[in-house]
Amino acid sequence: MAIEEAAVPETTTKRAFVPTPRGWVARGAVWAAIAWFVLCYPGNFLSPFEVRSLEADAATQAIVFAVIALSLNVLIGYAGQISLGHQAFVGFGSFSSAYVVTDLEQEFWMGLVVAALVGAIQAVVLGAVALRLSGLYFALITLSYGVMAEESIFNIESFTGGDAGKDAPRPIGFESNYRYYYLCLGILAVVLWIDWRMMRTKGGRALLALRENPRVAASLGINVKAFTLLAFAVGGAFAGIGGSLLAHRDLTVVRVNFEFRLALVFVLMTVVGGLRSRSGVVLGAAFFALLGNGKLLDLLHLGWFFEDKLSLPIDFVPLVVGPLLLLLTLTMYPGGIGQQIAPVREWLLGKRFDRHAGKVKEVQITDVRA
Amino acid sequence: MIVAAAPLSEQLGNALVIGVITGAVYSLLAVGIVLVYKASGVFNFAQGEFGTVAVYLAYVASDGNYWGLPFGIALVIGLAGAVALGLLTERLVIRPLFDAPRVTLLVATAGVALFAIGVQFWRFNDPAIRSFPAIFKESARITVLGIRISDQRILILLVLAALAVVLVAFFRSPLGLAVLAASQEPVASELVGVSVRKISSLTWALAALFGGLAGILQAAPNGGIGSFQPGFLTFGGNGALIPGFTAAVLGGMGSLPGAVGGGLIIGVVEALGGLSLFEEVPGARSVMVFGILLLVLLVRPQGLFVRRAAH
Question: Domains of chain A, with CATH numbers?
Answer without folding.
Answer: 51-361 (1.10.3470)
